[in-house]
Amino acid sequence: MFLKFVLLCAVLASSFAAEVEITAKRFDGDDKSGVSKFSGDVKVVKEGDTILSDTMFVYFDQARKPTRFEAVGNANFVMKQEGGKTYKGKARTITYYPNQKEYLLVGDAFVEYIEEKRKVYGDKIFVNDTTKKATVVGEEGGRPAKFIFFIEDKNGSTKTK
């Protein structure tokens, strides 16, 4: 089992241009299904990006490259973009698609753009690191999507909108 874990880590690291490190209290791998489960204080680190959760499922394609990371339970992330931009967020479930550099946050989702103090809330939030686009959807029949940002008025003070 330890050998499979070492091989999994090697595959994860080789499938990205950067090293990926996953730490957890437990690892369960299934070569047939192509799904690995990490549980207990899970932390995934790749370059400036970090995902934390109670449980993490990693899905692999036939070539043993990860196609999806699914963080469940106390899921949150920090994402660093080019130009020094930092995003942090949380949701009940966070799914990351490494090939597209896309995040999907579902359930009480929240994302904050730290440097500009912009915040979005919704039931579902989609963020694409490549296109720099985001989509926020409110709960159906429930709370709407919410966007909070700061503007300067004419006398230079900052106000929340």
Low-confidence stretches: 1-16
Number of domains: 1
Rg, rounded, reads 18 Å
Q: Give me the number of helical elements.
A: 1
- End-to-end gap: 53 Å
Mean pLDDT reading: 82
Output the helix-strand order: HEEEEEEEEEEEE
CATH class: Mainly Beta
* Coarse structural class: mainly beta
Which range best describes the helical content: under 10%, 10-25%, 25-40%, 40-55%, 55-70% or over 70%?
under 10%
Proportion in β-strands: over 45%
Architecture per CATH nomenclature, i.e. the level-2 architecture: Sandwich
Count of individual beta strands? 12
Cα shape: globular
CATH topology: lipopolysaccharide transport protein A fold
CATH level-4 homologous superfamily:
Lipopolysaccharide (LPS) transport protein A like domain
Q: How would you sum up the major sheet?
A: 10 strands, antiparallel
